[in-house]
Amino acid sequence: SFPVLLCPFSLLLRSCASAQETTHISVSLVVNVASECGFTDQHYRALQQLQRDLGPHHFNVLAFPCNQFGHQEPDGNKEIESFARRTYSVSFPMFTKIAVTSTGAYPAFKYLAQTSGKEPTWNLWKYLVAPDGKVVGAWDPTVSVEEIRPQITALVRKLILRKREDL
Description:
Blueprint: H1 9-12, E1 27-33, H2 40-54, E2 59-65, H3 77-88, H4 107-116, E3 126-129, E4 135-139, H5 145-165
Parallel strand pairs: 1-2
Antiparallel strand pairs: 1-3, 3-4
Helix pairs in contact: 2-5
C-alpha cells in the first residue's frame, strides 16, 4: 500500500518513505509520475532498473503520482500502485497522489522548485537530492534517466565512501 507521509519534511528528503520504515541517509531521485504519459514506459523501466542497481541502502527513487499535467494520472492511489507494481514491478516507494505546482503544491515539491529554480511543467520531472537535502540537479521528462545516471552513481559512490570513512 501507499506510504502516508508522516515524516517531518527534512526526513522526506532523506528518503524517509513512511513512519514504518527505518530512517536512513541516502541519495534520492524524486519524480512526479503519471501512468498515462508518453514518457511513462521509458521512465518507469529506467527508474526501476536504477532502484535495482543502486538501492535501497544508499539510493531510492521516490515516486509521487500527480494528475496536474494532461490529466494523465486519473486513477486512485490503489489503482496507481497496482499499475506500477503489476506493469513495471516497481520496488521503490510510491506515495499518495499530490499536486506538485501552484498554491496547492506539496511542500517537498515547493522546496525542490525553489531550491533548484525549476518547477515541474509536465509529468516525470526528476530531482536529484543529496543526503544533506540539497538539490543537485533537476531535469524535465525529455532528459532520460540513462542520461543522468552518471551523476546519480557518482553521488551514491561519494556517500558510500563517506560512510566507509566513518567506520
